[in-house]
Write a sequence for this structure.
């Protein structure tokens, strides 16, 4: 006897429609975005990252955004703003 | 349209059970092998085509079809006529207010509590009485299990991968109860939440396990309220998140006899389930040193009385109610109610 059983799993939807952003190379003269996920100490971690990068590169500006909830993805307006204003964005989870 | 489910050929029934284990497609317990013949009546009972989309989870980009829900329902041991409950529960979990991805992956280790109301309880044989959170009833056990299997198999919340629960709790195997509306002198949960009496409904809540509230010897409503509020104010789960309070019939009888109403109970519990900010800081619930003003600044369980959801369930004997805290520490995830169609 042969039994044919069904696969109960679901794979992630095809993501081929999302292109990888162009790499920035270095951060001299660039605008850096910092996205804090909203958990305790995420802001402190990003402050340290900012210090380190500012010592190494001539950043033109830094845009800091905080998500209201760590459990929820950043809303479209926040992502659009980061995409519009920044050359590179770093996000951090603290806790 | 998503692809139809892939078939795997195995030598027989016992081999099929093992094949599901080998592929990591179970919750750790044996499953009922899902063949095309077994799945078909589930789709028929649901009135859905195999490719109908039931839930689209945007964070991890998972699209769950009726066929996948039916397969997992078979694995869980469900009957075909449980499908409408599963579909309504999954639709509720897809509501943005539930924050599905966070709820099923967080270190907080929540399970999806499923509360069923309305006439479908009797039709499916759902237990609302003794041992309501325990074993022994197929509908409760397998509906809750099917929700977990969908979470594992379709949403990718495998322990140690996407599910990062620090400890989790036993409700993650199955966590489905019905309300004992017949012993509820007020209105049932789904009516309080805006649905018409006589409808069937499901309410989902990203929840911790039930905390027992024993109050046997007071025999006055005040004693029940004191014990409930004290449990809700304990530091371990304290937050401004929502609460479920599952009242045992014995406590309900005492509360109703002494003239308490549902809004009155919610108001009293909100007012009394509180801690000082100093306590929260001493217990590591809030950061920072205790300031003098913290000793007289109060935080409550929930943002208001409407954050406390009352359900009646349990056996006729025993003064044991339950407090079920939210996984969410504030507004991240809220209870969602949907009509079962």
């Amino acid at each position: 006897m042969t039994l044919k059983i069904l696969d109960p799993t679901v794979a992630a939807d095809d993501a081929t429609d999302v292109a990888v952003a162009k790499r920035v190379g270095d951060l001299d003269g660039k605008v850096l975005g910092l996205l804090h996920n909203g958990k305790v100490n995420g802001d402190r971690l990003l402050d340290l990252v900012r210090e380190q990068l500012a010592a190494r590169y001539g950043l033109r500006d830094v845009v800091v955004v905080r998500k209201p909830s760590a459990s929820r993805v950043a809303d479209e307006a926040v992502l659009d703003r980061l995409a519009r204003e920044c050359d590179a964005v770093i996000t951090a989870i603290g806790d | 349209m998503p692809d139809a489910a892939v078939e795997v050929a195995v030598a027989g029934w016992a081999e099929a059970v093992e094949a599901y284990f080998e592929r990591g497609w179970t919750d750790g317990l044996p499953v009922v092998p899902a063949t095309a013949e077994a799945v078909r009546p589930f789709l028929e009972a649901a009135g859905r085509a195999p490719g109908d989309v039931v839930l689209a989870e945007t964070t991890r980009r998972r699209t769950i079809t009726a066929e996948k829900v039916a397969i997992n329902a078979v694995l869980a041991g469900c009957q075909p006529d449980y499908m409408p409950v599963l579909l309504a529960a999954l639709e509720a979990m897809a509501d943005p207010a539930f924050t599905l991805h966070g709820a099923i992956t967080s270190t907080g280790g929540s399970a999806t509590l499923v509360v069923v109301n309305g006439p479908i309880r009797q039709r499916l044989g759902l237990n609302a009485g003794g041992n309501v959170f325990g074993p022994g009833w197929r509908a409760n056990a397998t509906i809750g299990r099917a929700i977990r299997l969908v979470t594992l198999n379709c949403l990718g919340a495998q322990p140690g991968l996407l599910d990062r629960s620090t400890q989790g709790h036993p409700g993650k195997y199955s966590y489905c109860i019905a309300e004992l509306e017949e012993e509820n002198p007020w209105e049932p949960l789904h009516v309080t939440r805006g649905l018409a009496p006589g409808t069937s409904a499901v309410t989902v809540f990203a929840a911790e396990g039930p905390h027992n509230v024993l109050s046997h010897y007071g025999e006055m409503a005040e004693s029940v309220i004191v014990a409930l509020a004290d449990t809700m104010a304990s530091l371990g789960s304290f937050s401004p998140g929502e609460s479920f309070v599952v009242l045992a019939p014995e406590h309900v009888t005492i509360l109703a006899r002494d003239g308490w109403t549902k809004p009155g109970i919610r108001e009293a519990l909100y007012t009394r389930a509180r801690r000082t900010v100093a306590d929260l800081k001493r217990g590591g619930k809030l950061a920072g040193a205790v300031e003098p003003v913290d000793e007289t600044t109060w935080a409550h369980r929930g943002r208001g009385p409407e954050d406390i959801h009352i359900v009646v369930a349990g056996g006729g004997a025993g003064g044991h109610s339950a407090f079920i805290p939210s996984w969410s520490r504030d507004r991240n995830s809220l209870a969602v109610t949907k009509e079962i169609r």
Summary: Chain B touches chain A through 47 residues (CB under 8 Å). The CA atoms of residues 86 and 143 of chain B lie 7 Å apart.
